[in-house]
Write a structure and sequence with these properties.
This protein has one domain. It starts with 9 loop residues before the first helix and ends with a helix. By secondary structure, the chain is mainly alpha-helical. α2 (33-40) links the parallel β1 and β2 (45-48). The radius of gyration is 21 Å and the shape is elongated. The chain is 43% helix and 10% strand. A 3-stranded parallel sheet has the order 1-2-3, sandwiched between helices. It has 5 helices and 3 strands.
């Protein structure tokens, strides 16, 4: 199941790393901001073809279906989830113990 989360940064990456963005609608609403955010996160998308969605997804990993086709929506979502590769775990930019060691060296150098 796709979940939306309100935090940013590494937490957001973890929240979405196994996800597929699902956008279903029967009415044209232009180009949804949530869809643009999903594309910015390089998420695969399953969406209905309303408004500017089909055009926006032309170069994305996406399945576009007809509005109101619940069976196609469900099967497309399952197919996208099953074929999505697991991205590698991001590496931390620093370790707290290493930062503490460097800070101690810095202070030791000042006082000697």
């Amino acid at each position: 199941m796709a979940h939306l989360h309100a935090w940013v940064g590494l937490d957001l990456w973890h929240a979405f790393r196994q996800q597929v963005f699902l956008r279903r609608s029967r009415v044209a609403c232009g180009l949804p901001v949530a869809l643009m955010e999903a594309l910015a996160l390089d998420l695969p998308v399953v969406a209905t073809s309303v408004g500017g969605i089909a055009t926006a997804l032309a170069d994305a990993t996406a399945i576009v279906i007809a509005p109101g086709d619940s069976a196609a929506l469900a099967s497309s979502y399952v197919a996208m989830v099953e074929k999505r590769p697991m991205p590698p775990e991001p590496q931390p930019r620093f370790e707290a113990s290493e930062s503490a060691r460097r800070l101690a060296e810095l202070y030791a150098g000042v006082h000697t």
